[in-house]
């Protein structure tokens, strides 16, 4: 009878230690999941902010202001437009003379 009691006591102790370990592991995994979800929320917010910043950088008015200020470009007007005429012997594509092979 004593052996049976010792075996049962040992089984209860092993079961208790296993239960404590399982609860600890469960809490650890839950906190890791919570941290990962918080980081995912932060990354989503940062992604949205970067999308807004990208749209602001690509706005037509901003691009035109940068082109005018930094690149010193100006709008096209008929007074400053130069038209280039093709030489008489070139085709529309400009790749080969009109009488030659392609």
Q: Main traits of this protein?
A:
0% strand; rod-shaped; mainly alpha; 102 residues; 65% helix; 2 helices
Shape, per Cα inertia axes? rod-shaped
Radius of gyration: 38 Å
Order of helices and strands: HH
Unreliably modeled segments: none
Q: Assign a percent range to the helix content.
A: 55-70%
In whole angstroms, the N-to-C terminal distance is 106 Å
Q: What is the tally of beta strands?
A: 0
Please state roughly what percent of the residues sit in beta strands, choosing from under 5%, 5-15%, 15-25%, 25-35%, 35-45% or over 45%.
Answer: under 5%
**Quick one: biggest sheet?**
none
List the domain count as a whole number: 1
Number of helices: 2
Q: Which structural category fits the helices and strands?
A: mainly alpha
Q: What integer is the average pLDDT?
A: 87
Textual characterization of the structure:
By secondary structure, the chain is mainly alpha-helical. It has one domain. It contains 2 helices and no strands. The longest helix is centred in the N-terminal third of the chain and has 56 residues, at 2-57. The mean pLDDT is 87.
